[in-house]
Amino acid sequence: MMKRKPECSVICPVCGMRLAFEDGVCYCPAEYCGYKCDKCKLEAEKNEKGEK
Questions:
Q1: What is the per-residue pLDDT across 16-52, written as a single tens digit (0 to 9) for each?
Q2: pLDDT tens across 2-20, in order?
Q3: Which of 8, 28, 4 is nearest to 18 (CA)?
Q4: Residue 10 neighbours by CB under 8 Å, 6+ apart
Q5: Exposed, middle or buried: residue 19 (CB in 10 Å: 0-12, 13-18, 19+)?
Q6: What pLDDT is attached to residue 52?
């Protein structure tokens, strides 16, 4: 089970909503916002490349 990294924010820097966490990526649940955590996205991409 993947967990949110401690260095990741829990509040969206764009709109101020509390971030949700799914598939290893912190993201903003607000439909109009669409923010995704850059740290998490980079980690997820690294992990995908490492597994193949």
A1: 999 999 888 899 999 899 999 988 878 777 777 876 5
A2: 777 888 889 999 999 999 9
A3: 28
A4: 4, 18, 19, 26
A5: buried
A6: 52
For residue 52 the two structure tokens come to 């193949």
Q: What is the pTM of this model?
A: 0.71
β-bridge partners, 11 = 18
3-state SS record for the chain: CCCCCCCCCCECCCCCCECEEECCEEECCCCCCCCECHHHHHHHHHHHHHHC
Domain layout of the chain by residue ranges: 20-51
